[in-house]
Design goal:
Layout: E1 4-8, H1 14-25, E2 41-42, H2 48-56, E3 60-67, E4 70-80, E5 83-91, H3 100-115, E6 120-126, H4 130-137, E7 142-149, E8 159-160, E9 166-173
Parallel strand pairs: 5-6
Antiparallel strand pairs: 1-3, 2-8, 3-4, 4-5, 6-9, 7-9
């Protein structure tokens, strides 16, 4: 992607991150893109306190994708249980499908592999999100069959509009990882 740059988020980025993540997943604005969860969940997707904790903790980075100083996308990568964990993947809805997300995912994998020497990347995806899971499978992720319950009743994760939500763990080996 021409002129796309990456950097780690700071606490000064938190208001812009809350707006970006919300626009990618919740409400009518999210329907411009294909990552919307608006038919499954209402409420918040992220809050400022959670972002600050992720920015400040060791072996955790919120990676920003920018072009000419403008925020286009973000993702959280962290070390969890000896592997990379990828989450909070958000691309501006009007830019989805244009390659920004693929470049950001590759950068997050690079961080886990090269900066931290981790052997694999994992993520949790709502298991009824077939199109999203297919996107990750095309990038080398595999469904592990490991399911986790959706945290019904915990509004930090949103307010469910369905009663059949659960997560599945996807994983990808990161070749060339060195500890």
């Amino acid at each position: 992607m021409d002129n796309l740059t990456f950097r780690a988020a700071t606490d000064a980025d938190i208001p812009a991150l809350v707006a970006l993540v919300t626009s990618a997943y919740r409400g009518d604005a999210s329907r411009q893109g294909w990552t919307t969860e608006a038919d499954m969940l209402d409420g918040q997707r992220i809050d400022a306190d959670a972002l600050l904790r992720d920015i400040e903790r060791p072996r955790s980075r919120i990676v920003l994708a920018e072009r000419q100083g403008g925020l286009l996308a973000c993702a959280h990568v962290a070390e969890e249980d000896g592997a990379g964990y990828f989450g909070m993947f958000s691309v501006r809805p009007d830019l989805q499908g244009g390659g920004v997300g693929k470049a950001l995912l590759a950068e997050a994998e690079r961080v886990a592999r090269e900066d931290w020497g981790l052997p694999a990347m994992r993520m949790t995806v709502i298991d009824i999100r077939g199109e999203l899971i297919a996107f990750y499978e095309r990038r080398g992720y595999v469904r592990t069959g490991i399911k986790k319950p959706f945290p019904y009743g915990d509004e930090r994760y949103g307010i469910p509009r369905r009663d059949d939500l659960r997560f599945e763990i996807l994983e990808k080996p990161l070749s060339g990882a060195v500890a």
